[in-house]
Amino acid sequence: MIEHALSALGMLLEPARLAALFVGMLVGMTVGMLPGLGGVAAVSMLLPFVYLLDQYAGLAMLLGATAVVYTSDTITSVLVGAPGSPASAPTAIEGHALAKEGHAARALSVGFIASMVGGVIGAIVLTLAIPVAGPIVLALGTAELFMFACVGLYYASSLMGGNVVRGVLVACFGLGVGTIGPAPAAAEFRFTFGQAYLLDGISLTIVALGLFGVAEVLSMLAEGGGISRARVVLTDWGAGAREAWRSRWLILRGALIGVLGGFVPAVGASASTWVAYAHAVRTTRDKSRFGKGEIRGIAAAEGANNATVIADLVPTMLFSVPGGPAAAIFMGALFAFGHYPGPRFVSENPDLMYLIIWSAAIASVLGAIICFAVTPWLARLTQIRFALVAAPLMLVMIVGAYQATNSIGDIALLLLLGLVGWMMKRGGWPRAPALVGFVLAKPMEQYFWLANQLFGWKWLLRPGVLIIGALILVPVAIQLVRWARRRAAGRPAAGVAASDAESATTARGRRAEGRVSTALSAGMLAMFVYALIEVLGFLREARALPMFAIVPGVALAAIALARDVWAGHWRPDRAGPAAAGERSVVRDELVQFLVLVAYAVGIWAIGFYAATPAYLAWVLIARARMRVRNGVLYGAVLIGAIYALVVLLRSPLPRGALFG
């Protein structure tokens, strides 16, 4: 074990791979500081460029981004009060309250140190889990691996938000999108609609960027304004370091909670962070400060989120079950490099395993150090309008999506999925299950086909399959019993999903959210019914997994639509000016989307370099309200940077149908 660990460290310390790790860290830190984007957007942006590197450098780059997102998002959470990612919501609550009292440095210091400790503990646990879990993994067959994938899909659907119907429905949507293209067990192409562009399926990069990146940029452009309204001054870092030492055992317990959350497929950092935060509340004698600036809440939450992100790799690499959405993208990169997590991955690739561990540990430590160094400078920049950041962000996402097949269809599909992602976000639907379902579609179909070929349907009676299946059946049974008891007692069901509660804090928000949700439910139902008609014409070998997604999808979409209609979201809104304000926000977000559509049409017609100045003029001058001269200079710099990137990638951008 030691020789493989040292060999992996030597490979990582080669200049090119160390540089890739550092570039990933910079991207992860930058994206982490942008409210709402999180680790998924960071690894999605890097994914097109990862394949230009060797497998060690490419995976190190992804891990560098993943390991520091939950460290750098502490900066935005404390200084601005807007969570850099959903997992940093407790930090935003307590940290920003402390910042208003003049203790921003204290909150940031505790957050950085706790994140670093959590990342290192996660790497240590990952190291210990490899030799222990390896023999167990080697004993698993294709039937057990299929059931593990089902467990991961269920947990992604039920734990990422409390609305199980929506969660499972979104997971079925992701599975369905993952079946587009060639069927692995039959000579047939599925759901291509006569388009040659879809014959090879859809790129993971486009799915991730569309559902998460584009949707967030639309919302933030519509909100406008600066990141913060006042300049924040940072002093007395030492007090934070002393506070972190006093809370060392709480940080350790938070990290262990995060590790346990990472072990459970698809729980993710958001759930683990809130569990750790609740632990801090329970173990604190004086609870009056929570919600008003309690440093212990930051210590527990930040210790948990980084540990979860790294521990997510345990089920990802050992069981082919993504621990979270970022881990799902990481698993997709492993597939692209020819590695298939599961039975033989542990024993056949020890150097790669330890390189992954070293990358996570080093990035966690260096990320905290860099955050300490750059935060005083970043505090001066919190009044910059988000549109100034959104412009290069959108250009990079379009270039990254176009690298999938070098087709204008890449950009069109990016915007289509961006619209779906925006509707999910605005309607209070979870998006992560769609990404997990998309990544699991192909391995699930392979495992299912092989299990049926080897055992027939008798594989359902294998002891391992029954034990793993109980991980789904037992929680479902418990939920049904609790639901029945609440109905018998006349009590309402337990609260709404976390994402629903956060996005629907007012009546007007719930009404606008419900209308988008109703439209999304109707669209999902129409899509699944159409897919059901299509799939009936497929060969039997190509029909199994699509039916696995479509049949429950039809039923769940009908239930979701019935719930939305029964709630009366479609009725005219008479809530007055507040509702009108909410409608104006939705309209503005749709305007931003229509501008993106016009930009995509311009790229198709006259080319990227001719259409981009017009889009930048809209974003920089109309939205960010820059002076014309400054906007032109900034736009020229952005276009020049994109041109340099394209030259480096040796992949030209569209010249336009009129000139091509």
Quick description:
The protein is mainly alpha-helical. Helices cover 75% and strands 1% of the residues. The chain has a two-stranded antiparallel ribbon.
Task: Spell out the blueprint of helices and strands.
Layout: H1 2-12, H2 15-32, H3 38-50, H4 55-79, H5 89-100, H6 104-138, H7 142-159, H8 164-178, E1 181-182, E2 189-190, H9 204-223, H10 237-246, H11 248-263, H12 268-282, H13 295-311, H14 313-319, H15 325-336, H16 345-348, H17 350-378, H18 386-402, H19 408-426, H20 432-455, H21 463-489, H22 498-503, H23 507-535, H24 540-566, H25 577-606, H26 608-623, H27 628-649
Antiparallel strand pairs: 1-2
Can you put this structure into words, describing what you see?
Helices cover 75% and strands 1% of the residues. The protein is built from 27 helices and 2 strands. The protein has a two-stranded antiparallel sheet. The radius of gyration is 24 Å and the shape is globular. Residues 492-509 have low confidence and may be disordered.
